Every structure is written in C-alpha cells, then in structure tokens.
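Appendix B, example 12.
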Amino acid sequence: MKALVYVGLKPGVLDPQGRTIARSLNDLGFNEVESALQGKVIELNLSGTDADAAEARVKEMCEKLLANTVIENYRIEMQVEE
C-alpha cells in the first residue's frame, strides 16, 4: 500500500520560494505565470492491508512530523496496489 502526502502552505502564509519561482519563470519569458506555490510530496510505502487503519496512521504521521500544521495544510491520497 502506498500513501502520497501533499503538503503546502495555508492561505495567507508568505511563500518566498513560490514568489521566487514565479519571478524566475517571468524572467525566462513565461509571462503567463502570475504566481506559484511551492510545496512538497512525500511518498510512503506501507505494510499491511487495512486501508482505513493505514490512512489513520499516516494522518498521525502528518500531525506529528510531516507537516507543520500551524502554517501548512496536508492532503493524503491512499493507493492500494493490486
């Protein structure tokens, strides 16, 4: 079983990396880019077969380590391998 965790800044939190990405793309001629948000994706390979229990454990991982819940949101996508 695999879990993909998408972590990004909450609305209203300054994103200097995203601003730099957007500005750099504009400098390279990609003027259609108005803004960019920078985040991270964490891929976890998990043992076990109970998808609900696994998702609950991944949520616990996010709350304790993977996301700074003061300034970041996260979204979990579970993938059951066949």
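Strands lie at 2-9, 39-45, 72-79. The two ends are 9 Å apart (CA to CA).
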